[in-house]
Design brief:
- The chain is about 65% helix and about 5% strand.
- By secondary structure, the protein is mainly alpha-helical.
- A two-stranded antiparallel ribbon has the order 1-2.
- Strand 1 and strand 2 (about 25) form a beta hairpin.
- Helix 2 packs parallel to helix 4 (about 80-95).
- The longest helix has 19 residues, at about 100-115.
- The chain starts with a helix and ends with a helix.
Length: about 120
């Protein structure tokens, strides 16, 4: 169930280059982390760590950065990778986490995932 803020956040992006992927009118997430990253970005904004428009502009910049170095039909395009890049920048800029803490936590999570999959 969406609250008014979540509805505002999602609809503010509709019909733009930052529109989240949709399927049959609903948000489309292919991997569990995508939905978590989506929710975290909205929750941090709702809690006042940054304005939603700041996040949206960071997402636009992340998409533009990717497009500047890739062809538009590049199969490596991943909307939620850009979303996650924007979320990381906003978390660092909002002093929620330092770049060093983020790097250390990322390594820790990847090690846990590799050990649980036997890789």
């Amino acid at each position: 169930m969406q609250t008014k803020f979540e509805h505002f956040a999602v609809t503010s992006m509709m019909g733009s280059e930052t529109s989240p992927p949709r399927s049959n009118g609903s948000l489309k997430f292919d991997r569990a982390w995508e939905e978590r990253a989506f929710g975290i970005a909205i929750a941090l904004s709702k809690k006042g760590y940054y304005e939603w428009e700041e996040f949206r502009q960071e997402l636009i910049a992340a998409i533009a950065s990717w497009e500047a170095t890739h062809c538009t039909d590049d199969p490596s395009w991943d909307y939620y990778q850009r979303w996650f890049a924007a979320l990381e920048r906003m978390a660092i800029e909002s002093d929620l986490i330092s770049n060093e803490e983020l790097e250390a936590r990322t390594v820790e999570i990847l090690q846990q995932e590799n050990s649980s999959t036997g890789s």
